[in-house]
Amino acid sequence: MKRGAVHLAFGIAACVFAAIAGYDWATLRQAQAVAKAVGTVTVDSPAQHDDAPEVRLARAVALSKAGRANDAQRLFDALIAQEASPTLRAAALFDLANMQLREAAGSDAAGPIRSMPSLEQAKERYRAALRLAPGDWDARYNLERALWLAPETPGDHDDADVKKRSTVKLRGAQSDDLP
């Protein structure tokens, strides 16, 4: 009886591991198919309804780099609105913000800002991307760059304003509670 129980346990374990291996194999095949589709994306490649979200993101990035901002914007917005994966939404927000920052700053970021609304939209998209992926240092850096191009706070503070801000009182908080 003991030997039969051991064989049964071994058979169940083998079936479970085979199911896990089958699932991993199917996931790998899907990832390879998506990678192949992403690798073949061009600006002129036709869009399919059943394209994977990663393929649609790659097509939007290709359109953005080709200078077709309106088409890219539509694809990015559709991905942001429809995609359930926070990672892919954060990537779409980041790429869309990059496109808007390039439009606002032009080819050289040291020159004058061409479009303040595009720059403001880029800052909002970077913030949204950081809400989804707080550890994204590229988004942090680009948000800092956008804030450097168009600061949101006035640069000149008079002494009375600084003193007023340093004496803010919080209801129910002690001075020891503040950092």
Walk me through the structure:
- The chain has one domain (26-153): Serine Threonine Protein Phosphatase 5, Tetratricopeptide repeat (Alpha Horseshoe).
- The protein is built from 7 helices and no strands.
- The protein has helices at residues 2-39, 53-65, 69-82, 86-105, 116-132, 137-149, 159-166.
- The protein is elongated.
Oligomer: single chain
| Average pLDDT score | 79
CATH C-level category: Mainly Alpha
Q: Structurally, how many domains make up the residues?
A: 1
**Unreliable parts:** none
* Main beta sheet: none
Sheet/helix structural class = mainly alpha
Order of secondary-structure elements: HHHHHHH
Strand percentage, roughly?
Answer: under 5%
The termini sit apart by 68 Å
CATH homologous superfamily, by name?
Tetratricopeptide repeat domain
CATH topology: the name is: Serine Threonine Protein Phosphatase 5, Tetratricopeptide repeat
Beta strand count = 0
Protein name: MxaK protein
InterPro entries: TPR-like_helical_dom_sf
Biased composition (Basic and acidic residues): 154-164
Region (Disordered): 150-179
